[in-house]
């Protein structure tokens, strides 16, 4: 049975899709509420509880114009680096968040990860159910669950087919999940323990330098790696990100301002970008 948080997210995702498909018609709150089978009052309240803003305000963050403004601002003042270094004091706890990445050694993941012991659990998030997994060193995997839990677990096991698995929500996972709460003061250092090439690790670390509420492009990310010709390779590394949301590959969009595709679906990417933009704006 679906939990209420997942039911609410599915309704909100359906509403975002409806808004985007009928954008030129400027659908009313009543029309969207009817589409997702709730009363206008309940829809407005549910949406504001989820995003912190009204549906009308939220949609402004999903426009091409808004995306272009964010990209332009970032290019003009190199906000991505400045925000990461200074913490933009007072704007968001996430700007102070320190996520440490440790690459797995070849010995740790050799022979399908037979030396690894991995704990995993399922949890609710504002964007649907997730599966999260950890070694004794940190989070090694996080993904959204769109099908059966057994399918999601098998996708995790495909990463490390010979590892030892135990369904257990450990302190490493619980700490990382605080990122979805409103009280980011509870967050401690989040450690990631990742299997990847040196180049992939560099790209994932560069993604961590994009603050909440900001966006970047593949070419912009390549430039930050001092390798401006590597946009295609950067895109491939972004697409192979093993830790959804914590490593914010959803904050990378096309140079023309379009949000583009996402491993877990474009609607979820829209929801995440808008949700973060609303949190960032309300923190200013």
Detailed description of the structure:
With 284 residues, the chain is of the alpha/beta class. The chain is built from 13 helices and eight strands. Strands 4-3-2-5 form a four-stranded mixed sheet. A hairpin with a 4-residue loop joins β3 and β4. The longest helix is centred in the first third of the chain and has 18 residues. The protein is globular and about 55 Å long. The chain starts with a helix and ends with a helix.
Please render the helix and strand layout as text.
Elements (H helix, E strand, L loop, with lengths): L3 H18 L7 H7 L4 H12 L3 H6 L3 H14 L1 H8 L12 E5 L2 H8 L3 E9 L2 E7 L4 E6 L4 H11 L4 E4 L3 H7 L12 E5 L3 H10 L8 E2 H7 L6 H9 L12 E2 L12 H18 L1
Parallel strand pairs: 1-6, 2-5, 7-8
Antiparallel strand pairs: 2-3, 3-4
Helix pairs in contact: 1-13, 2-3, 11-12
pLDDT average, as an integer?
85
* Number of strand segments: 8
Q: Distance between the terminal alpha carbons, to the nearest Å?
A: 38 Å
Helical run tally: 13
Helix residue percentage: 40-55%
Runs in which pLDDT lies below 50 for 5 or more consecutive residues are: 77-96
The backbone outline, from C-alpha atoms, is globular
| Spatial extent as radius of gyration | 19 Å
Q: What summary fits the major beta sheet?
A: 4 strands, mixed
Could you state the order of secondary-structure elements as H and E? HHHHHHEHEEEHEHEHEHHEH
**Helix/strand/pairing class, anyone?**
alpha/beta
Strand content: 5-15%
Domain HTH araC/xylS-type: 13-112
Organism: Niastella soli
GO molecular function: methylated-DNA-[protein]-cysteine S-methyltransferase activity
EC number: 2.1.1.63
